[in-house]
Every structure is written in structure tokens, then in C-alpha cells.
Amino acid sequence: MPTKGLSLLLWVFFVHLAGIYLYTRGFLLTRLALSDINTCDDGSCKLPPTHKRAVVLVIDALRFDFLSPHPPEPPSPYHHNVLRLPQELTAANPTHSFLFEMFSDPPTTTLQRLKGITTGSLPTFIDMGSNFGGSSISEDSFIGQLQAAGKKIAFMGDDTWTTVFPDSFEPNMTFPYDSFNVEDLHTVDEGVIEHLFPLLRDPSAPWDVLIGHFLGVDHVGHRLGPDHPTMQTKQEQMDHVLRQVVELLDDDTLLVLLGDHGMDRKGDHGGDSDHETSAALWIYSKGRQLLHPKAAIPPHLLTTRTFPGASVENRHIQQIDLAPTLSLLLGLPVPFNNLGTVIPELFWHDKSGRDYAHALTLNTQQIKRYLDTYRNSASGGELDGAWDDLERIWQTVNFQATPKEQSAQWLAMTAYTRQALSVCRMLWAQFNVSLITLGLVLLVTAAHC
Ligand SMILES: [Zn+2]
């Protein structure tokens, strides 16, 4: 009998090991996280800020079509045209208000997406390994840059933020809530609301950036799916909250609303399907206009796509584009490991696009510096196959372009930043879904033995 028990134990152990092996092999995430910080004492790596402060609101799992004025046909009464404020303000003030669909890199889970949004970088294998335990960010980030500039950050909502940035928020303005109970649809949202409005109403409250992370839409998705009356009620609540926020906003504060990822038709996420990787972004400047009314932005800079089932094209960006964009808008250096590209509309402050040219130049130089540093690191050999191509595109970039050559230069710089992103994605963020699934099946089997 003891031998039988022992062999069963060995068998379970073996199945377990095989499960872990296959599961982790499925995530071919090999990026080395560099710990360098982007700094410049002379201010040459940043722009004058457009806004003194920012309110950044995350509605977890806010898919693009939830905000889109042109949702798929036929629209759902439960999640289309319910959260209407962003599309209303964008229609009324197209030089102050901007809607985007963002591609959020898989794995589409909150921890990984928060890292992407704040660092501008791609997932690493360490992220996956510590998925549920959480882990703090050691890379340069938008949050780290705010801190280095002496800015004060208030925070409320999903406690993934305080796991990732344990020492970054003002202790007396930090209100984290447990994000684990998917059955609970309201506690986190009510907590955010309770602490958000006193800080917005108090003109002397000492925050520079306020981050609020709502979880209800995500939890309704997991529990009941997007096509449920509770989703409509939840989105109506979010619309109501946003209207109050806009009402209280002063002219020096930029409002940023985003989803960290989307959700599939059943309301779940984590994978790389179209609906899971589609997140919404709304940027609103109540005071100064960001886009000059006579701006003639070359169309090649404004990428679009059509959301599945919709008939009208929408602006489409990468979610990691937020990192360089928010950093430069708030007068900070772009995080060192960033692979995102600045969003043109938000920097086209005069007719000629001078600020955009400046922002894109800083952004391109930052990515070049990052790639050069990576190339010289212990993992630099990973870039062997892509390096010649990248260098060839880099040779076409000329930072001393004459006004006549501007448009071609913007194209060359964007070609470089986007090639860098696609090369790195190919190298560092490949997923083998069948290995991951097989590994999970084995792990579950082993657990039930
Ligand atoms: Zn979720």
C-alpha cells in the first residue's frame, strides 16, 4: 500500500510540474526590464505642461464601443449609448474632447495593463509569474516621474494600484479597496465616489494627479455579462459620476477616462480576442483647447479601424501611447522603457503642429535611447534579427527638417517608433494559447487528484 500511495503522489507531482512547465512556456515573454530612469537636468527631455493637474479615472473593462457614438449594429440597450457624456462633449467640443479606441496588449488583466499604461512598455514574464500575487514596478513610469517632480498623487479604488505602486500615493489621500470579490458590484465604486468628490470640491486639496479606479462595470461583466439590465444601471451610474466630475473640474485640470482592457461577449477577459483588447479612452480639457481648429494633421498620422459590427471608422491608438502622451502633457520626461507614440491631436496646439513636432522628436529620441541601451544590455542579442531594419529607418529621421520637409519627417519618426513597437512585440510578447490551455488543464487535473 505505501508504494501505491507514493506512486500516486509522484504522479500528482509529475502532472503538476508538467502543467506549470506548459503553462509558463505558453507565455513567451522574455523582455528584460531595464531600471534606467529618463532624466534631464536642463529640461531638454520635456515640454511645458498644458495642464497643472490631471484627474485620471479608470473604469475597469470599459470597452471602446461602450463610449462610441457609432456602436455595432444593432446597438445593445444595455451597454451602447448609455454612458453618453464623452460622445456628447466630443460632438460639441471637438477641439477639447477626444475619443479613441486603444489596443490593450494581452494578457488583458488589470495588473499587466496598469503596468503598460504607466510605463509604456510590453508585458514581461515576471508579470505573468506574479499575476495574482501582484508585484511592484521597478521600471521608470509616469507615476515615478510624477514623484520625481515632487507631484502629489491621490488615489482611490482598485487596490492593484497600491500593490504595483506601494509608496507612490499620498498616505492621507489614498483609499484602496479589495479588487478580488467579483460578486460585489458596488463597494469599490461607492468607495471611489465617497472619496473623489470631497477632493474635487476642496480647492486647497493638495493633489496634482488624482487617480480613481472603478470596478463595477468589470464585475457586472463577469457575473451577468454585458447584455444585462444591471450593466445599463451600472453605466448610467458611471455617466452620472462623470457629469458631476466635469461640473467640478477647473480649467487647469485635464480629465482622462480609460478602460484598462475590454471584455468578451460573455463579460470575461484576459486573452487576446478583439473585444478583450479593445479599451476606450476619453480625454477632455475643459479650459484650453488642445487641437487647433485649423490643424491640418496629415492623415497618415491618424490611424483608424472599424469596431466589429460597426459601420463607421474610429480613431485607433495603442494603449501604451498614453504613457508618453500624459507624461509630456503634464511637463514630465517620457518613461525610459516606453514604446508608445504620442497622440497627435493632443499636441496640435497651433496651426503648424510645432508642439507636436517637439513632442514626437522627444518621443523618438527616447525610444532610440531605450533600444540602444537594450541592445548593449546582456539581452541585446534578442534584437539581432531586427537591428539592421531599425537602424535603416533611423537613418531616414532628420531632426533638423525644414518646414517643407516636416510632414515627411513626422512620417519617418512615426515609422521608427512603430517599427520599434512591432519588433519588440514580436520578440517579447508571443503567446501560445494551446500550451497555456493544456498547462491549465493539467494543473486543474492535478489539483483534483
Ligand atoms: Zn475583470
From TrEMBL:
Coiled coil: none annotated. It comes from the Eukaryota. GO terms for molecular function: mannose-ethanolamine phosphotransferase activity. It is a multi-pass membrane protein. Pathway: Glycolipid biosynthesis; glycosylphosphatidylinositol-anchor biosynthesis. Its main location: endoplasmic reticulum. It is found in: Endoplasmic reticulum membrane. GO terms for cellular component: endoplasmic reticulum membrane. Keywords: Endoplasmic reticulum, Glycoprotein, GPI-anchor biosynthesis, Membrane, Transferase, Transmembrane, Transmembrane helix. The keyword rRNA-binding does not apply. The chain crosses the membrane at residues 427-447. One of its GO terms (biological process) is GPI anchor biosynthetic process. Belongs to the PIGG/PIGN/PIGO family. PIGO subfamily. PANTHER family: GPI ETHANOLAMINE PHOSPHATE TRANSFERASE 3, PHOSPHATIDYLINOSITOL GLYCAN. This is GPI ethanolamine phosphate transferase 3.
